[in-house]
Amino acid sequence: MKYSKIIGTGSYLPDKVLTNFDLEKIVDTTNSWIVERTGIRQRHIAAEYETAMIMAEKAAREAMVVADITPDEIGMIIVATTTPEKMFPSTACLLQQRLEIAGCPAFDLNSTACAGFMYAISIADQFIRTGAIKNALVIGSEVMSRIVNWTDRSTCVLFGDGAGAVLLGASHKPGILSTHLHADGTHKDVLSLNHSIGKPMDVEEELFIKMTGSQLFKLAVNILGDLFDETLKANSLQKSDVDWLVPHQANIRIIQAMAKKLDLPLERVAITLEEQGNTSSASIPLALDKAIRDGRIQRGDMLLLEGFGGGLAWGSALIKY
Ligand code: ACO
Fold first, then answer.
1. Residues of the chain with pLDDT under 70
2. Which amino acid residue places its CA nearest to atom 32 of ligand 1?
3. How far apart are CA 75 and CA 128, in angstroms?
């Protein structure tokens, strides 16, 4: 049987850092409120020239160095992003041009918000498993700072910018064991960005993220709990078989609840929230890359990745690293 395996990871964070204390000067908030309610202390903010593509390229090149492969060996590029440079050409096509590898399929996933990376890695995994391609570049890249309302304290304190990349390669040894994707449009109003091409845009506010945070919080805890059960059952595994949880970085209290559900100590959870905030579809590959680079995640470890976002959409992957 053919599997896809993680053969390289990379990340990129803009230099500029915005702390909670900086935010105290922008909106009516406090460092202690943000830390207590979310776990976030700071986030990175893109400079004007740093687009989703620019950051994706930097993360991708890092992953290629680790995997020791050249751009021409890449068989597919998927960029998960809610903040593409343009609706089209896709960020993935712009990146493909920079990598000078015209020909392979390249596309963005930009409608699944923070769940985008889980959807992207699942799609790439299917193509590798069937033998259609050998290597796939899967990236999450976001400039969330451009779509948050900087006068809305309930959302602007949450998000940050950055990019994470994963290179998947075909393998006969187990890598990605299974992926699980879901969506439920009945929760469409809990989290949205109403940039509608079909309607005239006369309300400036509509261009920004709108979120009913407390409702989303409860939904996330429930759906992710069920998702863990589904993922483990599909592989006939127990909670104790999971070495690392690599979650979407939305809120430390959600992450704590998920660690508890798996009986995992927080030391076994890849957390970047404190320094990076919620980077939407970039948060999972960023957390993964950090834990791999600093040596916490080791080859052979069993990883459970999970993400959820607007739609609602959510997904998981169980991976033998
Ligand atoms: N500083 C100070 N006070 C604030 C702030 C702030 N930054 N933001 C909100 N408040 C106030 C509210 O106005 C409210 O005041 P009130 O009681 O006087 O009305 C009070 O704090 C409590 O507000 P809640 O929204 O009930 O606070 P909660 O404990 O739910 O925390 C939070 C809010 C952090 C947003 C939380 O609900 C959360 O993390 N939800 C999940 C978000 C999430 O998962 N996002 C991921 C998806 S993002 C994506 O897919 C793109």
1. 1, 195-206
2. 213
3. 9
114 is catalytic: yes
In this prediction, residue 122 carries a pLDDT of: 98
- Residues 105 and 217 occupy one common structural domain: no
Range of the domain at 51: 3-173
156 is catalytic: no
- Please list every protein residue whose CB sits less than 6 Å from any atom of ligand 1: 29, 33-34, 37-38, 113-114, 153-154, 157, 191, 213-214, 216-217, 220, 250-251, 278, 280, 309-310
DSSP state letters, 35-101: HHHH---EEE---TT--HHHHHHHHHHHHHHHHT--GGG---EEEE-SS-S-SSS-HHHHHHHHHT-
Residues 262 and 128 in one domain: no
Let me know whether 232 and 148 are in one domain: no
Q: Is 180 a catalytic residue?
A: no
Identify whether residues 154 and 201 lie together within a single domain.
no
Q: Write down the pLDDT at residue 105.
A: 98
Please give the structure tokens belonging to residue 42: 């700071």
CATH of the domain at 278: 3.40.47.10
Q: Which of 110, 135, 251, 278 is catalytic?
A: 278
55 and 163 housed in the same domain: yes
Residue 110 sits in the same domain as residue 125: yes
Coil, helix or strand for 209? strand
40 CA → ligand 1 middle, Å: 12
Give the pLDDT confidence score for residue 183 in this predicted structure: 97
pLDDT of res. 210:
86
**What is the value of pTM for the model shown?**
0.95
